Amino acid sequence: MAQEAILEKVNGKVHISKSFDFMCSQLRNGRYRVKIERFTEPRTLSQNALMWLWFTCIEQETGTDKQDIHDYYCSLFLKRTSYIKGKETVVTGSTSKLNTVQMTDFLNKVQADAAAELGIILPLPADRYYNEFINEYKDRR
Prior knowledge:
- This protein has helices at residues 20-25, 45-62, 66-77, 100-118, 130-137, and strands spanning 7-10, 13-16, 79-84, 87-92.
- It is elongated, with a radius of gyration of 20 Å.
- By secondary structure, the protein is of the alpha+beta class.
- Strands 1-2 form a two-stranded antiparallel ribbon. A two-stranded antiparallel ribbon has the order 3-4.
């Protein structure tokens, strides 16, 4: 069974959310790898809402179902190679697994592609006409 804890370093002092000894006691005999990586927050609800608002806009403008648009952009921007049963396989990631940084990158790519390939401008919340955009597409979800 994998074990996970949050480690935080503040003013030079390290704090861990679970006892390392406890986590080790939960493991079966065998070899394990310990990897410490910077913690990132999962994508936000606001990011997810923005993505679906954008996909609603694209759906209205193109006639393509927004779930299909979601799947298309995931296959375009979230593909990776994995080995399954010893064979190299291309798999598509999910936006639900992205952290805030990865989701921002995904949204930036969607925004750029929609502008370049579809001629659709997808505004960010800080943009001048964002409220008008919301009013136009929010009830069409």
